[in-house]
Design brief:
It is a single chain. By secondary structure, the chain is mainly beta. The chain has strands at about 5, 10, 20-25, 35-40, 45-50, 55-60, 65-70, 75-80, 90-95, 100, 105-110. The strands form 2 sheets. Strands 2, 4, 5, 6, 9, 10 and 11 form a 7-stranded mixed β-sheet that branches. Strand 7 and strand 8 form a beta hairpin. The termini are far apart.
Length: about 110
Amino acid sequence: QVQLVESGGGLVQPGGSLRLSCVASGTIFSIYAVGWYRQAPGKQRELVATVTGGGLTNYADSVKGRFTISRDNDKKTAYLQMNSLKPEDTAVYYCHCINSWGQGTQVTVSS
C-alpha cells in the first residue's frame, strides 16, 4: 500500500510554468513506476507522463517537449515540470503509483 500527496498546482498565465510534486509513503518507492494523469471538467482522466523505477520516461503527445517527469527516490518524490503552459492544460492533476491515487492538485492556465 502506498499513500500519495500532490502539491504545486495553482493559477498561471499562458506560457508560464509550474512544478508539481508527489510525495509517497508506505512502500519501497524506488522500484515502482509513477504516473501523472489529469482530468479536465467533463472529460475522462488521461495519462500525462510516466517514469519507471529506473528513470525511463513516456509522455502524451500533447505535452511532449513542454513537460518533464522526474523522480528522486531518496526523497520518495516524483515531479512534473510543466513549461509553456496552455489553457488546455487546465485540469486536476493526479499522481498514481501501484494501485493508489493522490487527492489531486488543480492547475489553471488563464490570463
